TrEMBL record, chain A:
Keywords per UniProt: Membrane, Transmembrane, Transmembrane helix
Transmembrane segments: 12-28, 48-67, 198-216, 238-260, 370-392, 398-417
Segments forming domain YdbS-like PH: 76-144, 266-321, 418-477
Claim: Membrane is one of the keywords in the record: yes
InterPro entries: UCP026631, YdbS-like_PH
Keyword Lyase: no
Identification of the protein by name: YdbS-like PH domain-containing protein
Signal peptide interval: none
Organism classification: Bacteria, Pseudomonadati, Bacteroidota, Flavobacteriia, Flavobacteriales
UniProtKB/TrEMBL annotation, chain B:
Organism: Flavobacterium beibuense F44-8
Sequence ranges assigned to domain YdbS-like PH in this UniProt record: 89-166
Pfam families the UniProt entry points to: bPH_2
Segments crossing the lipid bilayer: 36-59, 65-88
Entry protein name: YdbS-like PH domain-containing protein
Domain of life: Bacteria
Taxonomic lineage from the root: Bacteria, Pseudomonadati, Bacteroidota, Flavobacteriia, Flavobacteriales
Keywords: Membrane, Transmembrane, Transmembrane helix
Length: 505, 180
């Protein structure tokens, strides 16, 4: 099934529908203030002109969509090694991307695209390119083929690179065409869904409940009731039952939302190995696919909490090198692989890092960190509470919550201090941290871009400090800990970075 | 990259005998740069003083607060001057064979080290005022994002130029074997 990309070609004809949807969305986005005015004054116009107007707009949009479709062509210029896109109805533009500048090719599918069975192909380039190139409608086989052609160049250089490194094993494997790697089942997603993101969902719901409560209070006040009546409406038993009901409700809602979110996002999660890279695809409503290439991986995070540990699953988050212009967006969207079991984790790590990282010598945080954490999250908030209740006596009613707060936060502080470790060996820097969700950050020394050592002046006498390892996929921060040891490690890491022949990207 | 030896050896590395970054002698900034720092502080406080003066002039109600306002203003000015002095004193840089070291900070001293083989590009900045004094700033960019980029101000123009040449040379030397 060799397809010819050397001649300019259009997108799939059904793609007109996608173009139509895109243009319509654009029109609505641009004209919404006008549209709202029209809708409100709908009665004033007679039916005929309203329908005629709507039809005119739709026809116009359809014509534009069709013209867009006609004028959009793409082809592969073999001679200049460029991927060329021509588009524009009145202002014609020609976009040429040198093949070796292409970083990533993603094939995605939105809901509309899914209905008419086409895919979007997005080309991500290196450098300061804010406008991504995207083909909005292309059929699946063609998309895969084009993707392969676009990335051919990359693979060649990769093979060179790996053979330089003497990774014969990887190279021989890369000759196998396709290789199903990891598949996350619905059951695993279910397990992940009910065990992850408690904190975030809880905070969200908590905010929601508080705003609703306030809203109801405001409403009652506005309705002209006395302030006290709200309290006297409820007898204590009813109130207690009501509170329990709300708490249980929140817990169930949290679980439910998490479950839904996880399944919609990660449904049918598949990882396939393609030559030297991994291809991830997932999604229930819209399919997303991403490519991970081992050299591009900067930071790897393995996250698991107590329940997930018992179930033997964990999430893996992968940060790849990002463009400087888009770093914030990219940072948030680290690639996530939910619910890997230990075997899958090891296979992945082995593929991405060449070997399974072992924990080296542990570096413990200084006891001053514990003291600092206690002051920050216990002493200061409690102090503020007492100060406020000194000023306004009504706050004293809430004093029963104080022991709960102390126990809760105290446990978090204790566990996050106990889990906080930095393991260093020749090949990896591993940081462990977190109280409930324990994250393990893994970094290979040759990915380091720069090292910062920070010390506040009151830390000098006790010889402690903070280290920040900058990578192209985010930072790894560890502190407070023994400063002399940190300096020693910094010298060692610098030596490793400055003498390495490995590519960081 | 060219930093490896072709004769492969794999001796145990004695971490204690590695070159120590903390022993590198840091160059302090050019004394004229302190004047620029003072000048910048002066401008900010001048604008502040004019604003306060204008408020006092047009609004009679604030007159009783003039004395405390002046006291706060003077206190802030003194603190700022102390900070500028400390900040100037704490800054220092060194260009070693394989990396650049930059130290700065008043309450927290941060030492940032960037290996040359991780530098993406280098920029040379010249402000209006620094040009009068013949000074320039060197900014070293890495792929590690804003937090790891280093900007060293207050270097003599000629020196800055030669540092830039040195860095550019290092980057080119690093990347040529890669490009092919």
């Amino acid at each position: 099934m060799k397809s010819d990309f050397s001649k300019p070609q259009r997108q799939s004809l059904v793609g007109v529908v996608v173009m139509f949807a895109d243009t319509l969305r654009g029109v609505i986005k641009g004209l919404w203030p006008l549209l709202i005015v029209w809708i409100f004054r709908l009665k004033d116009y007679d039916k005929f002109s309203v329908i005629a107007g709507a039809v005119a707009i739709i026809v116009l949009v359809a014509v534009i969509a069709y013209l867009k479709y006609l004028n959009f062509t793409f082809f592969l210029d073999e001679k200049n090694q460029e991927f060329v896109i021509r588009h524009g109805i009145l202002n014609k533009s020609r976009l040429a991307i040198p093949l070796d500048k292409i970083q990533q090719v993603n094939i995605n599918q939105s809901l509309i695209q899914r209905i008419i069975n086409v895919h979007a192909l997005e080309v991500d380039t290196a450098g300061s390119s804010k406008k991504e190139v995207s083909i909005r409608a292309i059929n699946h086989d063609l998309a895969l083929l084009l993707k392969e052609r676009l990335l051919e160049n990359e693979y060649e250089t990769n093979d060179d690179f790996t053979s330089e490194e003497g990774e014969v094993k990887v190279k021989t494997r890369s000759t196998e065409k396709e290789h199903p790697f990891i598949q996350i089942s619905l059951l695993t997603l279910f397990k992940t869904g009910i065990t992850s993101n408690y904190t975030r969902s809880f905070a969200l719901l908590f905010a929601f409940v508080i705003t609703t409560y306030q809203y109801i209070e405001d409403f009652i006040e506005a309705a002209g009731y006395e302030e006290d009546t709200l309290d006297s409406y409820f007898d204590p038993e009813l109130l207690l039952r009501f509170i329990t009901f709300i708490i249980v409700g929140i817990l169930f809602l949290t679980l439910f939302i998490n479950l839904g979110r996880t399944i919609i996002r990660y449904f049918d999660f598949k990882i396939t190995r393609k030559q030297n890279s991994l291809l991830l695809s997932h999604g229930l409503l819209s399919t997303k696919s991403t490519i991970i290439r081992p050299e591009k991986v900067q930071l790897l995070v393995i996250g698991r909490n107590f329940f997930q540990k018992k179930l033997g699953i964990q999430d893996i988050r992968i940060s790849q090198a990002f463009n400087q212009s888009t770093n914030k967006k990219q940072l948030q969207s680290a690639i996530e692989i939910p619910g890997c079991d230990d075997n899958e984790r090891d296979t992945l790590l082995k593929f991405l890092l060449n070997k399974i990282p072992e924990k080296g010598v542990a570096l413990k945080p200084s006891i001053r960190k514990l003291i600092f954490m206690i002051i920050k999250s216990l002493v200061i908030p409690i102090g503020v509470f007492f100060f406020i209740s000194y000023l306004s006596p009504e706050m004293r009613d809430y004093i029963i919550f104080l022991p709960i707060y102390i126990i809760f936060v105290g446990l978090i502080v204790f566990f996050s201090f106990r889990n906080y470790r930095l393991f260093v060996n020749n090949d990896f820097i591993i940081k462990k941290g977190g109280a409930w969700d324990v994250d393990t950050q893994i970094l290979a020394p040759h990915k380091i871009q720069g090292i910062s050592l920070t010390q506040y002046f009151w830390h000098k006498s006790s010889d402690i400090g903070i280290v920040t390892l900058h990578t192209a996929g985010g930072n790894l921060v560890f502190g407070l800990t023994n400063y002399t040891k940190l300096k020693e490690l910094t010298n060692y890491w610098l030596y490793q970075v400055e003498t390495t022949d490995k590519n960081w990207m | 990259m060219d930093t490896i030896n072709n004769d492969f050896t794999n001796n145990v590395i004695d971490t204690a005998s590695l070159p120590k970054f903390e022993e590198a002698v840091l160059t302090t900034l050019h004394p004229d740069y302190k004047k620029i720092m003072y000048f910048n502080v002066g401008i900010v406080y001048l604008i502040l003083a004019i604003a306060i003066g204008a408020v006092c002039y047009f609004n009679e109600q604030v007159h009783p607060y003039i004395v405390p306002a002046v006291i706060v203003y003077v206190l802030l000015l003194i603190i700022t001057i102390v900070f500028v002095n400390l900040s100037f004193k704490n800054r220092g840089y060194a260009f070693r064979a394989h990396d650049v070291i930059y130290k700065n900070g008043v309450l927290a001293t941060t030492t940032t080290i960037i290996p040359y083989n991780r530098v993406q590009h280098v920029a040379l900045h010249e402000g209006i005022l620094s040009r009068k004094f013949g000074l320039a700033a060197i900014e070293v960019f890495t792929a590690g994002g804003d937090s790891s980029d280093v900007k060293i101000a207050g270097i003599e123009k000629e020196q800055a130029e030669s540092i830039k040449q040195l860095l550019v040379g290092k980057i080119l030397k690093q990347s040529t074997p890669n490009e092919e």
